[in-house]
Amino acid sequence: MTLPFTLPDRPLKPRASGLTCLIDPGLPTGYFRDVIESHGGLVDCVKFGWGTSLVTKDLAEKMAVLRANDVTFLFGGSLFEKAVQRDCVDDYFRFCVESNCPLVEISNGTLEMAQEEKCRHITRFAQQFTVWSEVGYKDGERSINLPPYKWIEFMLSELAAGAQMVITESRESGTSGICRSDGEVRYGLISEIIASPVDMGRVIFEAPNKELQTYFVKKLGSNVNLANIPFSDVIGLETLRLGLRSDTLIAFE
Questions:
Q1: What is the residue range of 30's domain?
Q2: SS3 of 39, please?
Q3: Would 62 be classed as within a structural domain?
Q4: Closest CA to 20 of 225, 212, 189, 202
C-alpha cells in the first residue's frame, strides 16, 4: 500500500539503533510465542526479567522461539547479582555459556558493589559475550542521591571496560533510577546525560510505560533505544516511533 505521506525512517533488523527490548516477567509460553511470531520484526531483544529464567518451565522453548525470529535475549541483571552475592560468578558464567546466551547484563542495582569491581566483571564477561551494563539503583532513595555527574562517570567507565551498551535503570514499574518514586521523569538528569560525552547511540533507556516511551521518542527521536517494554506494547511503541499515535502525531512534522 502506498501512503500519501512519509514516515520517520526506521532501520531494519539487525539494527544498532532504535532498539526495542521487551521484558518477560514470566509470561505464559503460548502468549510469548504468539507475540514474538506476530511482531518479531519489531523486536530486537527480550530480557528474562530478574531471576525468572530459573523458574520458567519452558525457558528452552522460549529461547528457541526467539532464535527462530532473530530476536536476541539476556537474563536479568538481578540474576548476575545473586551470583555475586553467593560468590559463584564462575558458575553463572558457565550457565550463560551453556544457555548459548548472546548477551549478558551486568548490574549493581541492588547489591552494594564498588564501581571498580563492577567494571572488572564487565571486562571479564566481555571476553565471551556482548555485555550490556545497567546504571542506577532499584532503591529510589539511593538513585535520587546519585548525582548526574556520577551517572555519567559510571556510564563512561562501563563503556570503557567493555560494555557495548549501558542501560538506565527505571525498574519494570518506572518508579526508580531515572524516575522519581511517583513515576515522574528526572528531566534534569536526562538532560545532563544527553549533553554529556556519552554516545547516545550506546544508551538504552528503560521505558516500561507509554508516558516514558512518549517522552523519550519526543526527546531523542524515533530511533531512541528503549527497554523494559511490556509484550503488550510492541505495536503501540512502534506507532509512537512513527508518529501514528496521538502522543507523537505532530512530533515529527
A1: 20-248
A2: helix
A3: yes
A4: 225
